Amino acid sequence: FGIKLNILRELSFHVKNIVIVPADSEYTTILAYKPDGILLSNGPGDPQSIPYAQKTIQNLLESKIPIFGICMGHQILSLALGLQTFKLKFGHRGLNHPIGSNTNIEITSQNHGFAITNNLSINKKVFLVQINYNDQTIAGISHRKYPHFSVQYHPESSPGPHDSKHLFLHFIRIIQITKKYSYL
Question: Is the pTM of this model over 0.85?
Fold first, then answer.
């Protein structure tokens, strides 16, 4: 959907074999690589303008391969899970956006004009992990059953806050656990 070099840099600290596929790749093409995990990259754009990506992700969800979505990747994963997006009045731009849950707060970098509608109470597939404390929009979700999660901000930001860099290692650990217990 668009990729920042720093996303690849952060992943390369943990893995050596990274394959980048075009946004319009079929799910069978992606599965042919036998990926251990799938990262849905940032945008730009309106996630509803690329319905083929939503369909691909819906098919990939059934594979139970760990999926990590960042920004637009978060929005497309959310759409694939049955949630809806909406255009923000002003968008979230720049550094120092507080996100979190309960007493855990991280300062993040953001750059998006769309967000996920908070109708998680009617969607039993996902649960809310983090909110944006500036406007209460959804900042992070996780699938209740499968190893899929996503965030609305940029953990790869540079320069910028580094509070959320741990998400790359979290993704790698999910991959390792999923491979170890492949019966999941």
Answer: yes
Q: Which of 74, 92, 143, 154 is catalytic?
A: 154
d(CA 162, CA 80): 28
Annotated catalytic residue 71: yes
Q: How far apart are CA 128 and CA 142, in angstroms?
A: 7
- What are the angstrom distances between the C-alpha of 1 and each of 26, 52, 109? 14, 12, 18
Give yes or no for a contact between 160 and 115, defined as CB atoms under 8 angstroms apart: no
Alpha helices in 3-157 (DSSP H): 5-12, 27-32, 51-61, 72-80
List 151's β-bridge partners, or say none.
Answer: 70, 140
DSSP helix/strand/coil, 28: helix
- Catalytic choice (71, 92, 106, 112): 71
Q: Give residue 168's region: left, alpha or beta (phi > 0; psi -120 to 50).
A: alpha
> Does 92 qualify as catalytic in the annotation?
no
pLDDT digits (tens, 9 = 90+) for 98-134: 999 988 899 999 999 999 998 877 678 899 999 999 9
DSSP state of 155: T
CB distance 143 to 81 below 8 Å: yes
The SS3 call for residue 167 is helix
- Tell me the sheet residues that pair with 67: 38, 148
